[in-house]
């Protein structure tokens, strides 16, 4: 199997339709599926769509996961979900866009489920705030899956220093000690910066979505 970002299925693609004509042909195939999803014709039509887009979807997922096995697992779920919910697609000409959106969403879901520090516990006891008595005050709340995209969007609006420390700890899964080495500062400073950055992130999220706390209680 070819393990590259170009996808592992290049030599299996056999599509007689020119790429520029894909949207129109996609719409035709989607129409067949939507008219009678349980028919042999529908399954054959979806097989064509699967073969047409599996390489593209592989790349979309792999760019985020950087792991062939994980990418193939997510990709399988993408096409299962696409077939299951294809009747919800209002404009068959936009099948490719719709399929990519499913891939991106399921990739985020996969990361959230499998990465220890990817906001499943937004606050971690190892970086919790110490009160005036020196006691650790651990603030732990669960961030619901539907808010992950919101968080990533809001993260881009933070100051560079806040964004960097959050990205290093949660996205790159670096330890406090490693971050301190990168920033050339004491570990205590990293903890304070991380706590402050999370507070600012949460405030920015609440500004965009006032019921954030209520949904995550």
Question: Could you explain the architecture of this structure?
Answer:
This protein is mostly helical. It has 2 domains: 18-114, RNA polymerase sigma factor, region 2, helix turn helix motif (Rna Polymerase Sigma Factor, Chain: A); 125-215, Winged helix-like DNA-binding domain superfamily/Winged helix DNA-binding domain (Arc Repressor Mutant, subunit A, Orthogonal Bundle), CATH 1.10.10.10. 60% of the residues lie in helices and 2% in strands. It has helices at residues 22-35, 40-65, 68-84, 95-114, 148-155, 160-171, 176-183, 187-208, 212-215; strands at 129-130, 136-137. The chain has a two-stranded antiparallel ribbon with strand order 1-2. α1 packs across α2 (40-65). The longest helix has 26 residues, at 40-65. The protein is elongated. The N and C termini lie far apart (45 Å).
Q: Which keywords apply here?
A:
single chain; 217 residues; mainly alpha; Rna Polymerase Sigma Factor, Chain: A; Arc Repressor Mutant, subunit A; two-stranded antiparallel ribbon; 9 helices; elongated; disordered N terminus
CATH superfamily of the largest domain: RNA polymerase sigma factor, region 2, helix turn helix motif
Largest sheet: 2 strands, antiparallel
User: What's the gyration radius in Å?
Assistant: 22 Å
**Count of distinct structural domains:** 2
Spatial separation of the terminal alpha carbons = 45 Å
| Backbone structural class | mainly alpha
Say what the CATH topology of the largest domain is. Answer: Rna Polymerase Sigma Factor, Chain: A
Indicate the low-confidence ranges by residue numbers: 1-6, 9-14, 116-146, 211-217
Helix content: 55-70%
Mean pLDDT: 76
